[in-house]
Structure formats: C-alpha cells, structure tokens
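Weekly modeling sync, notes
Attendees: S.R. (lead), two postdocs, one rotation student

Agenda item 3: backlog of single-chain predictions. S.R. asked that every request posted to the team notebook include the full sequence so nobody has to chase files. The rotation student volunteered to paste the first one in as an example of the format we agreed on. Action items at the bottom.

Example entry:
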Amino acid sequence: MKNVVQCGGATATLLVGALGVLAGACVLPAPLGSFDTDTDTDGGSGGGSSGDPDGGGHSSAPGTAEGSTGEVPGAATAIDILFVFDNSGSMGEEQGALAASIDALVTQLEQVQGASYRIGITTTDVGNPWCGSTSPEAGHLQVSSCREHLEDFVFNGNTPQDATNTACLDVCELDSIPLTPTVTEFDPTPRVRPWIEGGAGGTNLDGVGLTEALRCAMPQGINGCGFESPLEAMYKALLRTSAAAEPSYGFTRSDAHLAIIFVTDETDCSYLDDSIFLPENMGGHPEIFWSDPLASAPSSAVCWNAGVTCSGSGDPYEECHAVDRAVDGSFTDDPHDAVLRPTADYIEFLSEVRAIKQSQGASVFLFGVVGVPVGYPAVPITYANSPDAQEQADFGIAAGCSSAWGRATPPVREREVIEAFGVEGMGPTLYSICEPPLANVYADIVGQLAPYLGG
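Predicted structure, as returned to the notebook:
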C-alpha cells in the first residue's frame, strides 16, 4: 500500500511492505516517478543526475566503487537475492551454464550457520514498441520449471536460435516446481509465493531439493525483448514487492540483506521516451540515435547512443560514462527530459532502500555478470569503436569481451549503478559473462556476502 506524507518539505510516497520497514521511509516521487509497475516505462523522473557530457561527478571510473563509504554492512542472518536475467536471443548458453552452477550458490549459503535466504527471479524485458510479440515480465517474479515454457527457448529473430536443450533440458529434470503455501511478515495468510526459500527458515519446496528446483527455475528463455532494461526491471521488481496486490508482495524482508544480481550481455536500455525507437513515419527521429536513420527498425546501438558518451579518439576511448540526453540528442540537466531513465534515479532509489536496511542491521549489495573482460578489474574494460562495421552499427561500440558463446557489450549504465554500491574491502562486483562455464561466479559472490551473514 502507499501513503503520502511530507518528507523534507516535499510530498513523498511511503512504500509500505516488503522493502522492509519502508513504512517509515521517505521515497520521493523525484527519484523514480510514481508507483507504476506497468510495462510502459513512461513517467516522472527526477534525481540529481548531471547532463554534463564530462560526467559532472555522476560517473565513476571502471573498477572503482564510487559509493563505497567504508561503512561495514550489518550482520543480518537473512538475505533476499533478486536475479535479473537477460532473456534475449543471445543468452542461451549463459543461462544454461549459470543454472548448471547453481549448486555452488546453494552449497555456500547452506554453510552459513543460521542464515536464511530467498531467491527471486525476473527478466530484463519490460516491454518496448518493437517487442510486441514478447511477454514482458516488467519486474514480475518468475518461478516455474523451464520445461513448462519450452517455447520461450526458441528465438525467431534475424539469427534464429534454439536453446531448448542448452538452456533447459540439459540442466533441468523437473516438469514443474512444487511449492507449499507460506506466510510473510506482511501477509499472515498462507499462499504460494513466486520465489524459492531455503536455509534456517526452512524451504517452501514440496518434495524436491533446492538445487534441483533452481536449475529449472533459473533459465528464463531467449525470446524476450532485445532492448534489455535490467535497471528498470530491477526497480519494478522491488516496487512490486511493496504492493499488497502483487504476488511478490513480501519477498524482501525487513531484517534481510538485499542482493541484486544482473546477468546481461548488452547495455541497459531503460527508457522513458519510446519515440527514440520509432521511425520517422511513426513520429520518431531516427536521425538522432539510430545507426542507420533509413533502416526500418533500430538496432541495439540506439541504447548506447541515447545513454552513453565517451572521451578520446575511439581507438580506444579514454573512458565512457552515462549521460542524460533529450529527444533531440542534446545533453540535459532536467531528468524529466531524458530519453533513458537517469542512472542517478536508480542510485537514489537504492540508496533510500539501503538506508532503511542499515537501520535494521542489513544492507544492499549489487553484482553484475556482464560484458567486462575476463580478469576484471585487474584487466580493465576497453571501450573502443569496432573495426567491424556491422558490429558498430548493431551495438554502437566494440565488444567488451567475447567467447565461444558470442560477444557482450561493455557495461556503462549498469556498471555505474552497481559500483555505486561497492563495499570497501569486498572483492569485485562485476564478473565477465565471457568466461565459460561461469562455474565460479556464484561461489565467489556468496563468498563475498558470507562475512556479512550471521549474528
């Protein structure tokens, strides 16, 4: 539910519910607009992001933790983990590999004495004018066996893909995931919840093991929208956990750490103005952000061009950082005019959540399995124009890493948000998606979180 109060002289929205003790929190309309979990991302935007092309203090250099304050997170014994999976056509092998290695995550979590955990899953698909045939999750938590939606593992785009075996059948043995009704601190009525629970609090699985269930629940398919919006999906998912009418209400607990793990091979495209995707005859201005203004549809480069700027020659660039651009392509200081939702909005929103969590002895942690090179941060990201004209036209930038599975765009918007929540003394928060078989990612993440779990 929502209540409107005065906070710092401005009208604020209280998100009462699963983001912990948000009943006492001021979440201003400025950070992320009104309470709107529709697939349409249009809406009010605010925050202090800078439209300065030089970054204006809102960017962070690769490998740094801009938001690290040196404060030690509390030692809560519970953790709620939100996965945001890219479900576009290039993600079959990655989904299969990460599902196959989920045993490492469960094993490490189970070894933390007294810890309880919840795992929720959503996708990067929040809808787009060009993605009418997809079923955007828009932050809804998903908990079903991949065998129940095998049609989602076939991609019929320009380069057709079939990941039915690689991403699902080879790793999952359950035709369905049996769940038992549970209660939450906000809802005393037993209901089947769209997440998986384990650890000291017991499990909500009925007769199947945690790793067995997660191997089937993690793969999300490859027919989702190719204009991935992981940041907006995360935001909408957290809003849904605070809305009493939503199935995911109560996912995040007052006294639990919140860990968010993004898994994607492209740049964030969380938009506010969908006209950037439209051709001229539909009211758009393709000459501003499209690689080819005469094309019938935009490429993924529209996301890079609309939200990133770089300094240097491009061979390589000295650095790249997120910027806010208006619909005419100019830099803007007014976040309401930005065509992509400013990264500062997401940082402000999550900072509010973290402040509330810290008052309860918990905190917020962010990680990304993204297009950074293997060995990052010791091996820095190289931002450069691609010598391959087609790759440049498709993505706006050369790959940040590549493997037998394919190429991945180097992160900028998602990197800035993730690294704003770095904790001094912790290891890397960004992992390369180009390191088959991705076997060590989960073990390393839990290894970093384990010192903060426990009384």
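Discussion: group reviewed the output briefly. The two ends are 31 Å apart (CA to CA).
Action items: rotation student to repeat for the remaining queue; S.R. to check formatting next week.
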